[in-house]
Amino acid sequence: MPIPDGRSADQARAAIQEALGQIGFTLPGSITIRRTRCGKPRCACAADPPSLHGPYIQWTRTVHGKTVTRLLTPAQYQAYAPRFASARRLRALAAALQALSLKEIARAEGRAKITPGTPAPPRTRPVRGPNPNYPAPPKTPGDQPA
Ligand SMILES: [Zn+2]
Fold first, then answer.
1. 14 near 75, Cβ under 8 Å?
2. Which of 7, 32, 100, 120 is surrounded by the fewest CB atoms within 10 Å?
3. Which pLDDT tens digit goes with each residue over 39-53?
4. Triad 136, 141, 143: Cα angle to 5°
């Protein structure tokens, strides 16, 4: 959806901010639900058809730079699911706000688009020309004190 002018961009920004204001509690990380085999040859998980272990609900997140995984019970997962959904919504709204901001600076700079990650335009060096003050221009007779 193109943004024809700054006013509708402001309206789009206001809509995103309104939605951000509706965000409740959010939880970081992601959920992976696994059914596994234990490897014991006489276990039901090795039968044909197999009866796998689980489901194991793994909550993975980063704490102080380390990946931390915690198993959730189905009841915990049910209770926390809205908070993971809120976190996804928050990320989507942040991405929308950033995309809108990029469009706005592109519009302001008069460019078609700005792609994140592209290098900045090269800096222009001032072109050195003759310095009008060096050597000092010859004094004209009018500059002489009377
Ligand atoms: Zn097994």
1. no
2. 120
3. 999 999 999 999 999
4. 60
The tens digit of pLDDT for each residue in 12-65 reads 999 999 999 999 999 999 999 999 999 999 999 999 999 999 999 999 999 999
What is the CA(108)–ligand 1 centre distance, in A?
61
How many Å lie between the centroid of ligand 1 and the Cα of residue 33? 17
Ligand 1 centre distance from Cα of residue 46 (Å): 6
Q: Which two tokens stand for residue 88?
A: 């996804």
For residue 34, report the distance from its CA to the centre of ligand 1, in Å. 13
3-state secondary structure of 27: coil
Q: How far is the CA of 38 from the centre of ligand 1 (A)?
A: 4
Quote the ligand 1 centre to 50 CA distance (angstroms).
Answer: 9
What gap in Å lies between CA 91 and CA 95, rounded to an integer? 6
Which CA distances in Å does 60 have to 2, 56, 67, 72? Answer: 38, 12, 7, 10
